[in-house]
C-alpha cells in the first residue's frame, strides 16, 4: 500500500459513501475496496483494507447526533466571541459562570470498559427507572463548581441555584451567567426570582443548539464517565451519594477524574 493509496483512502473516509455516489450511508471494508478500485488504485482484499485502516488509526465509532444552529454562521460566531471576551476581559470582581442542568438516571448508562478476551462486562439494571436532576454553575476563572439537586427539572431547580450563587458570591455586585435557551431560564417564576435578587444576575444566552459554547457540558460528560456509566447502585440515594462525592472531590482535587475510594464516600455522607 503506497502513500498515494493511503491518501486516497483518507480522502474517502473524510466523507460518507453517499458523498461519493454510493447508495449506502456507512462504510464497510468491502465498499472501501470498491471505492479505491474505482479511483484507479489497486484492488485489495478485505483483510488488507482492514490492516491499512488500522495503520491509519481509523476505527469504528458511533455517530454523534447534532442539531444545527438556525442562526447564520457569522452571527453565531460573533455571539460566541462576545461571550469569550466576557470571560477573559470582564471585571475581576464580577464572576462569570457557565450554567446547565443534567439528568441522573438510576438505570445506568452503558459504556465501554476494559475486559479480558472472552469476557464481557455485565450491568444489571433496576428495571423501574428513577431520575434526579442537578443544576450547576462552573466558574470559568477558578474552575469551582456549584450545584443543587432536585426531583424535577423545572424553574424551581434553577431558582434554587440562583439563591445558592447569591449566597456564595455575596460580595459580587453582578454575577454573569452563560446559559442555553431552556424555558426554565426565562420563565415567569425565574424572572420574578431575578427581580427579588435585585438584578444582581445578568443572563447571557448562547446561540440555539450550541452546547460546545458551554464549558459545564464537559463537567457533565466527566460525571457520567466517572459515576453513572455502568454503575451498580441499586438505590437512587446511593447513586446520588456518589454523584455528590465525585463533584466535591473534583472541586478539591481540581481533576476531571479525582481519586476516590469507598471510605471517601462514607465521610462525604
From TrEMBL:
Keyword annotations from UniProtKB, A to Z: Endonuclease, Hydrolase, Nuclease
Keyword Hydrolase set for record: yes
Calcium in keyword set: no
Superkingdom in the source lineage: Bacteria
Molecular functions per Gene Ontology: endonuclease activity
Residues in Tc1-like transposase DDE domain copies: 96-238
Lineage, uppermost ranks: Bacteria, Pseudomonadati, Myxococcota, Myxococcia, Myxococcales
InterPro entries linked to this entry: RNaseH-like_sf (IPR012337), RNaseH_sf (IPR036397), Tc1-like_DDE_dom (IPR038717), Transpos_IS630-like (IPR047655)
Organism of this sequence: Myxococcus virescens
Alphabetized Gene3D superfamilies for the sequence: Ribonuclease H-like superfamily/Ribonuclease H
Pfam families: DDE_3 (PF13358)
Name of this protein: DDE superfamily endonuclease
Amino acid at each position: 500500500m503506497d502513500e498515494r493509496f493511503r491518501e486516497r483512502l483518507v480522502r474517502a473516509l473524510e466523507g460518507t459513501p453517499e458523498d461519493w455516489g454510493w447508495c449506502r450511508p456507512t462504510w464497510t471494508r468491502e465498499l472501501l475496496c470498491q471505492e479505491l478500485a474505482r479511483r484507479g488504485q489497486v484492488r485489495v482484499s478485505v483483510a488488507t483494507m482492514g490492516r491499512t485502516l488500522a495503520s491509519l488509526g481509523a476505527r469504528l465509532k458511533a455517530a454523534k447526533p447534532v442539531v444545527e444552529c438556525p442562526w447564520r454562521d457569522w452571527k453565531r460566531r460573533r455571539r460566541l466571541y462576545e461571550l469569550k471576551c466576557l470571560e477573559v476581559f470582564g471585571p475581576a470582581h464580577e464572576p462569570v459562570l457557565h450554567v446547565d442542568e443534567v439528568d441522573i438516571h438510576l438505570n445506568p448508562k452503558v459504556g465501554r470498559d476494559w475486559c479480558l478476551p472472552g469476557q464481557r462486562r455485565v450491568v444489571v439494571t433496576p428495571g423501574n427507572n428513577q431520575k434526579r436532576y442537578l443544576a450547576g454553575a462552573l466558574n470559568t476563572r477558578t474552575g469551582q463548581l456549584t450545584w443543587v439537586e432536585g426531583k424535577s427539572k423545572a424553574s424551581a431547580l434553577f431558582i434554587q441555584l440562583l439563591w445558592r450563587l447569591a449566597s456564595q458570591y455575596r460580595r459580587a455586585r453582578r454575577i454573569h451567567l452563560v446559559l442555553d435557551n431552556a424555558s426554565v431560564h426565562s420563565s415567569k417564576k425565574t424572572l420574578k426570582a431575578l427581580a427579588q435578587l435585585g438584578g444582581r444576575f445578568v443572563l447571557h444566552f448562547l446561540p440555539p443548539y450550541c452546547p460546545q459554547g458551554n464549558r459545564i457540558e464537559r463537567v457533565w460528560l466527566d460525571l457520567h464517565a466517572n459515576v453513572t456509566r455502568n454503575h451498580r447502585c441499586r438505590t437512587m440515594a446511593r447513586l446520588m451519594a456518589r454523584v455528590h462525592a465525585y463533584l466535591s472531590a473534583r472541586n478539591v482535587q481540581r481533576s476531571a477524574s479525582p481519586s476516590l475510594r469507598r471510605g471517601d464516600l462514607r465521610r462525604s455522607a
